Amino acid sequence: MNFTSFDTWWWPYLFILIAGALATDIWRFLGVLVGGKMREDSQALVLVRCVATALVAGVIAQLILYPTGELANSPMWLRAGSAILGFGAFLLAGQRILVGVLTGEALLLAGLLIL
């Protein structure tokens, strides 16, 4: 069974849903089972938080330095500036993630509309 097994409109969506759930939900369930029994300041959870933060930083860096799709048509200074100013808004707002993300997105969209 693969992505092109059926010729119906809904099959690709179901395939993506099942494949995505199998790849991620197992680890989420294991994390809840194991993490619930660990102290919050344990070395293992500190390591997990560090790895998760590094993965997010890597994805953001890849989007800024090596974008694909429509984002590749935007200038580097706009991508980097939006990220930097979004991070600044995040810090000024008392480390509210939504404020940082919305600020960065708004600046990027505004820059794309102006250019």
TrEMBL record:
Q: What stretches pass through the bilayer?
A: 12-34, 46-64, 97-114
InterPro entries under this entry?
Brnchd-chn_aa_trnsp_AzlD
Domain of life, per UniProt, equals: Bacteria
Q: Which UniProt keywords apply?
A: Membrane, Transmembrane, Transmembrane helix
Q: What is this protein called?
A: AzlD domain-containing protein
